Each structure stands twice: as structure tokens, then as C-alpha cells.
Amino acid sequence: MPTVVHAEHGRGWRRYTKAQSRVRFLITLGVVAALAVAWNSISSQTTWSFVLDAGVQFRDMGMRMFPPDGRYFTALARPMIDTVHMATLGTALGVLIAIPLAFAAARPTTPSRLYVRPVALLLLVTSRSVNSIIWALMLVVLIGPGILAGILAIAFRSVGFVGKLVYEAIEEAPQLPITAMETTGAGRAQALAFGLIPQILPTMAGVGVYRWEINIREATILGLVGAGGIGMALQASIDALAWSRVSVILLVILSTVVVAEWASARVRKKLA
Amino acid sequence: MYARKGHALATDLARAWRPPPRIESRAVRTLIVVSVALYLLVAALTVEVDPGRIREGMSRAGDLFGGWLRPDFVTRWPDIRTGLLESLSMTAVATAVGLMISIPFGLGASRNLVPGPVYVVCRGALAVFRAFNEIIVAILFVAMFGFGPFAGVMTLVVATVGFLGKLLAEAVEEIDSAPLDALTTAGASWPSRVVFGVLPQVMPRILGLTLYRLDINFRESAVIGLVGAGGIGATLTTAFSRYEFESVSAILILIIAMVFAAEVISGHLRRRLL
Question: ipTM score here?
Fold first, then answer.
């Protein structure tokens, strides 16, 4: 809070005028009041005896998780490979759908600012607002449990993310090369292929790899609603209260995530 | 005759020119393309598709999409309103608490402010906070704290600290070091170096990131309800398991509308404040 800090050391100089500090005070008061109301409503929905019990529960859960069931490890290879497949294929499909949408949404390339652009933007927002596990929930109803539902859920969620970043890249790219090529007689397609694509290709690749890393994390939980991968093993172990298996699964997820993060960081550093 | 020949030559040249490739060695390029294609093929072949089940599901698609086109805000309105208010409360509390915890962690994870051991511990803690998906954290917290929004708040706090702490540390590491050096030379203590040398430089960034995280926390609060951590997600799961797709549609529309509104408002706030 800079107001306080500055008021303390010089009586004569103040950073804000009286009116400004009054407004700032009122805003702070409003935020604190809103937080108090919010906290109150949560507190009323909470069984505090369970919360106070948490330490005991935590120790209990830790003891059941330890030692991890080492024999279960081999049974996890297949679900984990499925999880990585889901993330990779889902990202690939998502990027394929996102690119035409991004071109339709970006001001310089959209076929129609009045009709096409708003529709493309709406599709991108919808894709982003619905979490991949909710997409999975709906897709499992439609096409049944399994890895295919997972791939599609990942793809549908990725479209909004990749599409938004790519269309912003298109709008931020200098338009001069395109104009120059069109002036020398290049067609629209040629001008885009040589004037625009080389400018946005590094962004596209970087965004794709970044999304893949996020998707690895997301793919690990889609199994909770039946969409394949290691989440199904997690759900089964939790339902059976087999906590020594849960800890093995968490370790496997953790190491995969770390490796994926490392790989993605290396690739993106190369691209930049 | 000559003119035509010259013209043809020029076209050939234009066709022949290609922008220089990013990876120079042709062998490496081919290898990458072939192995990526091979991997995608192998991965795609492991996907089991059951056409019978899909046909069966498509008959249900009518119900699902029909429900989407007829959103029903009325029947379950009391539940939806309670769920939304709970989600908003969870979002606000978790973002505020998460911000307060993330500042010490973020400062501790900045290489230019603290000695090596502190840096390693704080970075490690932040990495652990971010390692697991919110759903997994929520499952563990529901087992620890019981069902309800408290477990949800704790989940969102952990995710918020991991997110804000890491990005804050990155912002602090990029600050202009001159004010900090000046303060050190003048003999300022560590707290006053942070308050006068660091915070003024990163304040706009903290504000922007917090607004962004507020938006993410609201969206996540719609999801962690699936495993019993309260909020609109709980309402959504109930509607799903009752096959009330009209209510599901209404809830999803409300979530999308609120995310959209939040994006507009936070964009406006950021432009005014920064």
C-alpha cells in the first residue's frame, strides 16, 4: 500500500490528493467487506469438526499411502502410455481445428468481419470456458467411455487456447510484407503463405508445445469420468480405498509431468 | 521466342526459391517428420473405437443437444443460484488468501533477493504446488477436510500460490537492479529494500496476474465440485447424474457468460489501473 508508506515519511508531500485517497480507502473497504461476506457464507457451509480433524486424517492417509505398493507399478505402464497418447493426439487435433478458426477470427484475415469473425470468436470462447473434464463428461455420454472420448475432450478444450493465441499473433504481425507482395502481383493465398505464415509459425509451434504440456496434466484426470488413461486407475484405487496404490499413481503422474515440462521448456527455448 | 523463353525461366526461378528452413540438415528434417508421422500413426492405432457404442450414443445426442438448445434456468434456479454464489465466494476468498501466501513464496523464489538455500526451498515448494491437477488436490483435500466449499477453497489456494508465486518470482528477477543497489549501498535493511526497491516495480504485474487468476479460479471452481468440493460444479454434477440436460445447458451458459463478463471487466480494470 504505497499511500501509507509515503505519508509516513514526509508530512508535506503526499502521493495522492485527499479525494484520491478517499476513493482508494472506499475501494479497499469494499473489497474487504466482500471478502468477509464470502468467507462467512463458506464458513456456514463447513463442518468445522471435520476441518479441525484434518491433521489426524492427514497422518492417517499418509500412513495408508506408505509404503507405496511397488508391484502395482508395472500395471500402470499401459494406462500411462494411453494418457500420453491422449494428450498428444488431442493436441494435434486441437491445433488442426484451431488454425482455420484463428484465421477466421483475426481481423486481417477473416472473410467477413460482420458475420464470420463473431462466430469464430464465440466458438473460441465456448471452447475455453468449458473445462476439459466437463467436455469429457459430455463426450462419455455420447461416444462411450474410453480413450477416444479423452482425445476429443482434450482437442475441444485446446481449440480455444491455441486459437486465441494464434489469432492474436496474426493480428500483431506486421502487415507490410503482405501488402508488399500483393503490390507485386501475388495472389491472396501466396501473400499469406509467404508474407504472414513465416511470421506466425514460431508462435504456432510454441503454443502447440505449451498446450501439449498442459494437456499431459489434464489427461491424467480425465479417467475420473471414464475417458481413459491413468485417471481410471486412480478412480478405481480411490474407490477401493487402496491408498498404497494411490501413492504409486501420484508418483507416476508427478514424474511424467516433470519430464513433459522439461521437454516442453527445452523445445520452446529452441523455438524462441 | 526469346522473350517467352526468358519469361519461363523467371517463373521457374520464382518456383524454385524457398525460404531457408529452420533446421538445416535435410536428414534431420526428414527424420523428424517421419518419426512424428510414425508416432501419430502408432498412437492412433491404439485407440479403440466401438462403432456400435457410438451409434447408440448418437441416439442420445438428440437428448443432449436438444437439452442444450432448450436451456432451463427455472426448474433448478434455487440450486443454481446457491451454487453460483458459493463459487463466487470460493473464488474471492481463495484468490485473496492465495495472493497473501504467494508474495513471501514469490520473493523467496527470486534469485536476486535471497541466499541459495532459501531460493531452492521456495522454488521446490512452488513446483510441488503446481505439480498436480486441481482435481487430484481436491480429492485429497475432500478426504482431509470433508465435503463442501472449504476443501474447494484450500484446493484453489494451493493452485493460486503455485501460479502467482512462480510468475511473481519471474517478474522480480527481471526488475531493474539500480534502485535495489542504491538502497543496499545506503545501508537499507532487507524489508525496506523489498518495500522500496522491488514492490513498486512489480506492483502492476501482481495486479494483472491476480485479476487473471481470479478468472481462472472461477472456472476451476466449476470443476472441483465434481469430486465434492462445493460450488457450481456440485450443482452441475447433480444435474448431469439426473440427466437434466436442460439444467446442464443453463449452468454452462451461465459459466460461459460470467467468464466472458469477467474477461471484459478485468481487461477494462487493467487498462485503467496500469
Answer: 0.77
